[in-house]
Specification:
Length: 97
């Protein structure tokens, strides 16, 4: 699942906006997850987590003009991919509008 959301700011500011929202989401929904891993390599975040016994992982890349989210869903979540994708797109567009 790949989502690209444009931003109209600097890479540094886009990363700060993304990190701030990610922290808010972790505080709000962190009790549903375990084994959360986050590792920034330059402008790319590699992440992984478990939720309700299922694993998810992916990357977030901050470019000069976009935030690109590329995630791997477990097979059991595939039927929900359109709904998950639209929720992430709405959230990301709200962050950068």
């Amino acid at each position: 699942m790949r989502i690209a959301v444009p931003h109209r700011t600097t890479k540094e500011n886009a990363r700060r906006i993304f990190e701030r929202r990610l922290s808010e989401l972790e505080r709000q929904y962190g009790h549903f997850t375990s084994d959360v891993e986050k590792n920034w390599n330059g402008d790319r975040l590699d992440f992984g987590f478990k939720a309700k016994g299922f694993s998810g992982k992916g990357t977030v890349e901050i470019t000069d003009s976009e935030v690109i989210i590329d995630g791997k869903l477990p097979l059991i979540a595939k039927p929900f991919e359109p709904r998950i994708k639209s929720t992430i797109e709405r959230e990301a567009e709200t962050m950068f509008s």
